Amino acid sequence: MSADGPESANSADSRGVPCIWMRGGTSKGAFFLAADLPTDVAARDDLLLRIMGTPDPSQIDGLGGATSLTSKVAVVSPSSRPQIDVDYLFLQLGVADPTVSDKQNCGNILAAVGQFAVETGLVIAESDRCRVRIHLANSGSIATATFPVRDGRPVYDGEVRIDGVPGTAAAVLLSFEDTAGSATAGLFPTGRVRDSIDGVDVTCVDNGMPVLVVDARAFGLTGYEPHGDLAADSALLKRIDDLRRKGAQSMGLGDVSGSSVPKTVLVAPARDGGHVCTRAFIPVHPHTSVGVFAAISTATAVMTPGAVGHDLTADWPDGLSRVDVEHPSGHLLVDIDLDAAVTPPRVRTAGVVRTARKLFAGRAFPRN
Fold first, then answer.
1. How far is CA 265 from its chain centroid?
2. CA–CA separation, 156 vs 356, rounded Å?
3. How far apart are CA 70 and CA 30, in angstroms?
4. What is the structure's pLDDT at 9?
5. Residue 203 pairs with which residues in a beta bridge?
6. Which residue in 324, 296, 239 sits closest to 110, CA to CA?
7. Cα 181-185-187 angle, rounded to 5 deg
8. What whole-number percentage of the chain has pLDDT above 70?
9. 129-136 and 86-93 as β-strands: parallel, antiparallel, unpaired?
10. Which of 158, 287, 290, 332 stands the most exposed, by the fewest C-beta atoms within 10 Å?
């Protein structure tokens, strides 16, 4: 697959748009070369909404899978930045609502960006391990994806298992730089590690994703509730939305009524051999697992003295940097090198192991 040159929305209707559908981590979505999409943002977004089948709760007339985890788009292009291979723009498309948001990163979809770059010829793989330096256009941060290749093509088969995905696949190592303050003024954008919103203690943190970290007990929950129970609790979801909107104001994000950030993550003591148990909301509906950057931000908060959830670290080994985050589908391991001895705390590095797979390659045809 290669770029065919810029296309207008009208020509895309009849000719289709070159596309690779890929799973990255516990998400999947449509991957496009930027050159194959309209340069005008409004035209691009209109085209993508029609390709995905939004707005429609079932997305029956498009590629979307009727959930926020399967209504995602990656737009990839060669990078002009020194020592950077590609630029990656993540777009979260609504399902029932015709929204396209570039206000956040997606670490799961990121797990397939390097392979897409090789598949489309943006990056030439010359050894059995490919290392792709990626500029995350949403936040300006840098990630490096390392994955196996064979005969110049990505290897997707492997023995690594991640919770939330059946079977096994090849490991994709993601390491991150400059993730603090991805969409806000800093790691703790309110200037404090703990705030009170309507009587609820909250830590507002942004280590790759703006997140409100809250003790599950503050909502009268254990933090171990099944996904279905949370999804059916309309009163809880309204409280979550009210809290995140007010938290967003404190974080300098303004009116987020139409935005997918910030996320809210409820924390509780681990009960399955991990370090912390989580229930994440994206932004209001409960996540079936947990996003990569949401997990990194949450673990960063919990590791910080004075922040919500820090009491959960009392039994953690000294110097722990690999945090086992429990979620409804299993576990996610995140690596965080945090210097909490300085004020404000400083993130040195963060990383995670994911898997990815190419699902199909061809052309995507938008609805009229």
1. 14
2. 7
3. 9
4. 55
5. 213
6. 296
7. 45
8. 97
9. parallel
10. 158
Task: Identify which of 221, 348, 238 has the alpha carbon closest to the alpha carbon of residue 283.
Answer: 238
Q: Which residues contact 141 (CB under 8 A, 6 or more apart)?
A: 105, 135, 176, 177, 178, 179, 182, 208
How many Å apart are CA 303 and CA 317, to the nearest integer?
12
Q: Which amino acid is at 231?
A: A
**Three-point CA angle 102, 105, 106, nearest 5°:** 115
Q: Which residues pair with 358 in a beta bridge?
A: 22
Instruction: Quote the CA–CA distance of 137 and 88 in Å, as a whole number.
Output: 6
Show the tokens assigned to 182.
Answer: 């991805």
How many other C-beta atoms can be found within 10 angstroms of the C-beta atom of residue 107? 28
Straight-line distance from the first to the last Cα atom of the chain, in angstroms, rounded to the nearest whole number: 25
The Cα 147–Cα 170 span in angstroms is: 7
What pLDDT tens digit does each residue of the chain (368 aa) get? 544 444 455 667 779 999 999 999 999 999 999 999 999 999 999 999 999 999 999 999 999 999 999 999 999 999 999 999 999 999 999 999 999 999 889 999 999 999 999 999 999 999 999 999 999 999 899 999 999 999 999 999 999 999 989 999 999 999 998 889 999 999 999 999 999 999 999 999 999 999 999 999 999 999 999 999 999 999 999 999 999 999 999 999 999 998 889 999 999 999 999 999 999 999 899 999 999 999 999 999 999 999 999 999 999 998 898 899 999 999 999 999 988 888 888 898 899 999 999 999 999 999 99
Query: Are 349 and 300 contacting, i.e. CB atoms less than 8 angstroms apart?
Result: no
Report the amino acid identity of residue 330. G
The tokens of 159 are what? 């023995």
Is the backbone of residue 89 left (phi > 0), alpha (psi -120 to 50) or beta? beta
For residues 74 and 85, give the distance between their C-alpha atoms in angstroms, rounded to a whole number.
Answer: 15
Residues recorded for the chain: 368
Say if residues 64 and 54 touch (Cβ distance below 8 Å): yes
- Tens of pLDDT, residue by residue over 261-299, are 999 999 999 999 999 999 999 989 999 999 999 999 999
Contact criterion met (CB below 8 Å) for 147 and 119: no
